[in-house]
């Protein structure tokens, strides 16, 4: 029997795993891949984004409530999940606004990356998914998530770095999650318009700069059959996701027809692979990957 393949997804807040790459994870889990979500912060400074949940009892216990939501989403997706123990930096309202003392985005890189290096050395993923260096969207925790993920990918295999966090392990591929591409939203927008549905994306697309993607999509993972699980996991984050809001404006069946993949940019690879890919594990063979092989 070959050893199972392992996938690690690194996220900033509870709910990010359900809005970025969730169907990919749900699919791989059901194909026998071990999947671990590492959530860097507890989401303590997230606002309640669903008006139906904006109640004093919920706001007062937001950290606890978000943990319970994360548990439910984890069960739905079938993944393992761990919090890395940092405190949400919050989304500043302007560039001048200072970040709160002690928050994740203000940590020194080696302090911020250490728990993730330890998790990589323990879980031993073949593939890591994270955000691009703009964070996918400009939340300081998302940008920091990119930095610690790249650091962990580069350092976890080096026995001289991060002593005391376990035996070295070198992951083989690093991906940036690319769900928010202009191409995808244009395609959904056109399909909705063509069917006489109002599209919520027009202003957004108009504001999008027309320039070549900094991180071109290299890898499209077919996962339309898992969009329903993705949506259930999103809804489990009830304080963050309004069932009548942004995520659900485009009918699921239309998404499945028009854009049946979740997309990625292959940022680092230590294996030979041919682009474009349709599998995050392309070029990796579990039975050839022994624990001692770096
Ligand atoms: Zn987030």
Word description of this protein:
The chain has 294 residues and is α/β, with parallel strands linked by helices. Helices cover 34% and strands 15% of the residues. The chain has helices at 16-19, 22-30, 56-60, 62-77, 109-123, 140-155, 182-194, 202-207, 227-236, 252-258; strands at residues 6-11, 34-41, 80-86, 127-130, 173-177, 219-222, 261-269. It has a 7-stranded mixed β-sheet, with helices on both faces. Strand 4, helix 6 and strand 5 form a beta-alpha-beta unit. Helix 4 runs antiparallel to helix 9 (227-236) and helix 5 (109-123) crosses helix 6 (140-155). The chain starts with 5 loop residues before the first strand and ends in a 25-residue tail after the last strand. The model has no long low-confidence stretch (mean pLDDT 93). Residues 12-13, 16, 139, 142 line the site of zinc ion. Keywords: Hydrolase, Metal-binding, Zinc. Pfam families: PIG-L. It catalyses: mycothiol S-conjugate + H2O = an N-acetyl-L-cysteine-S-conjugate + 1D-myo-inositol 2-amino-2-deoxy-alpha-D-glucopyranoside.
* Secondary-structure-derived class: alpha/beta
Helix content: 25-40%
Order of helices and strands: EHHEHHEHEHEHHEHHE
**Which oligomeric state applies?**
single chain
Number of helices: 10
Unreliably modeled segments: none
Strand content: 5-15%
How far apart are the first and last residues' alpha carbons, in Å?
A: 21 Å
**Bound heterogens, unique:** zinc ion
Could you give the count of β-strands?
Answer: 7
């Amino acid at each position: 029997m070959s050893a199972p393949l392992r996938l690690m997804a690194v996220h900033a807040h509870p709910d990010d795993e359900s809005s970025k790459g969730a169907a990919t994870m749900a699919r791989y889990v059901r194909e026998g891949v071990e999947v671990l979500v590492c959530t860097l912060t507890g989401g303590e400074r997230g606002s309640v984004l669903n008006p139906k949940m904006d109640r004093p009892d919920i706001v007062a216990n937001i950290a606890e409530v978000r943990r319970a939501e994360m548990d439910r989403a984890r069960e739905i997706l079938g993944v393992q999940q761990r919090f890395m123990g940092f405190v949400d930096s919050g989304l500043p309202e302007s560039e001048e606004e200072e970040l709160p003392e002690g928050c994740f985005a203000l940590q020194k890189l080696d302090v911020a990356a250490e728990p993730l290096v330890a998790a990589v050395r323990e879980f031993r993923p073949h593939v890591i998914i994270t955000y691009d260096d703009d964070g996918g969207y400009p939340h300081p925790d998302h940008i920091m998530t990119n930095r610690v993920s790249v650091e962990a990918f580069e350092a976890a295999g080096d026995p001289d770095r991060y002593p005391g966090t376990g035996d070295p392990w070198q992951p083989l591929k690093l991906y940036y999650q690319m769900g928010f591409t202009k191409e995808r939203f244009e395609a959904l927008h056109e399909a909705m318009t063509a069917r006489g549905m109002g599209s919520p994306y027009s202003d957004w697309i108009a504001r999008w700069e027309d320039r070549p993607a900094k991180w071109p999509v290299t890898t499209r993972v077919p996962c339309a059959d898992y969009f329903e699980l993705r949506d259930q996991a999103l809804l489990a984050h009830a304080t963050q996701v309004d069932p009548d809001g942004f995520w659900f404006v485009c009918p699921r069946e239309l998404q499945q027809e028009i854009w049946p993949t979740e997309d990625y940019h292959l940022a680092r690879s230590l294996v030979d692979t041919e682009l474009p890919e349709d599998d995050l594990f392309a070029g990796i063979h579990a039975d050839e990957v022994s624990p001692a092989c770096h």
